[in-house]
UniProtKB/TrEMBL annotation:
Organism encoding this protein: Cannabis sativa
Alphabetical list of InterPro entries matching this protein: Exosome-assoc_fac/DNA_repair, Sas10/Utp3/C1D
Region (Disordered): 128-149
Family named by the database record: Belongs to the C1D family.
Database matches in Pfam families: Sas10_Utp3
Name this protein carries in UniProt: Nuclear nucleic acid-binding protein C1D
Protein's job: Plays a role in the recruitment of the exosome to pre-rRNA to mediate the 3'-5' end processing of the 5.8S rRNA.
Cellular component aspect of the GO annotation: cytoplasm; exosome (RNase complex); nucleolus
Keyword Nucleus: yes
Subunit structure comment from the entry: Monomer and homodimer.
Keyword set, alphabetical order: Cytoplasm, DNA-binding, Nucleus, RNA-binding, rRNA processing
One MF term in the entry's GO annotations: RNA binding
Amino acid sequence: MEEQLTTSEISAVPHSVTESAKRSLTHLEAVQTNFFDFLSLSSDPDVLSQMPPLQRAHALLLLAKTITTLFTLKLRCNGVDPDEHQVKSEVERLSLYQNKLESEKRSVKTAAKEFLEKAALELLGSDNEGKIKGPLQLKKGSEDEDNSD
């Protein structure tokens, strides 16, 4: 008895690969739509000057990574190994900058945490059993003295 072969079994490309390619195309179309908006904003000097330096660095890094990733994808689609192309040095450079930005972000968070811890110690003190010290502390005897006048 002969078996009937379906279209997906005859095709040289597996169905899962075809579906993955369709999803990738849909995602690329979404990137294309939003990329031009992002590009126009990130290349506007007025917009960039209004951003805090760390946020501006993150935006420019995101732009560079997006462009590099799209170029790497184009190379792969044309059968070129990105690891054997000059783009590899750009990917490594962007990775280095990303690590620097992440460490800067961590150091800012660490500095803020240390500041808050020191402020809490200054307000609460370490030896006054959790009572507030300084001008915020009420003395029990001073209330009675004010009422006696």
